[in-house]
# Entry
Amino acid sequence: MYVHGSEPVTRAVACMAAAFLLALCGLPMPATGAEFPATLHGAQRVMIEVVRATTPPLRDLARLKPSPRWLWQPRTIPLGTVPLLIAPEQLDPVLQRGRLPASATKQGLDFEGIGAGLSGFLVEGIPPDPNLSVGATQVVEWVNLSFAVFDKATGTLVMEPIQGNALWSALGGQCAADNDGDPIVKYDQLAGRWLMSQLAVTGGPPFYQCIAVSKTSDATGSYNVYAYRMPDFNDYPKVAVWPDAYYLSFNMFDALGNYLQPEACAMDRAAMLAGTSAPIECFSPGSSYFGLLPSDLDGSTPPPTGSPDYFVG
# Structure
């Protein structure tokens, strides 16, 4: 939800092997519930969750009850500033210059998702940040401040829209109180679990990143949920599924909205699947980069054994 109107600071495409991202084992596991500031480990930062919990089934949570339209007020979206570096013009070496033969497509299921046309739903934020992932039997769609679950085979609404921050209500604190958008929903097909993320930054600092991993393949069931306190404003979070970790990227800003640097992070996937303490380890290539995106596992073909996750910026 928090967007910036400036251009990326570089045109270069960098594939960055994240070899640092698996130094997750052997880290001290502090008790849940205390504040743990980010700590620097050389060029890396390791964070432990401030608090973690297990939610009741989402299907049992209170349903979203939109405010009447005449009471709704547009949300203010802060704009950060990104210093623009002028780079020499150059040809893109990987730009596709030819046209491939047309491929036949087969129309799949067509159904109405979250939006102004969905009965009982109210658009509460601009831009809407639509986000969707497909699981084994369900489709989860998140449109900025609310998400819903649909049946994959029929498109039937399985769980009506609920507020995004309801997912973290078991944590208390800022993740439970703030519903700030920039949501991500992913399906971890290797484990048959749902992975969801949202930032919580209203009134910050402090700033938080809120993570949820389902306990089963049913998106309406219970989740292992985590709150991480971030050192700066953690804008534009992107999440990816990989066999060895869950990967995460941010554009970091200070409290005044000045751009600092991007960050590439790895979350302890095995710990999150188990609901135990889960460190996050982060690294930054420097302020000359902006908008790193982690590679995400899609389809049925796994990456080569031992392949690191790659970030493109």
User: Anything to note?
Assistant: The chain has one domain: 15-60+114-299. The helical segments are 173-177, 269-274.
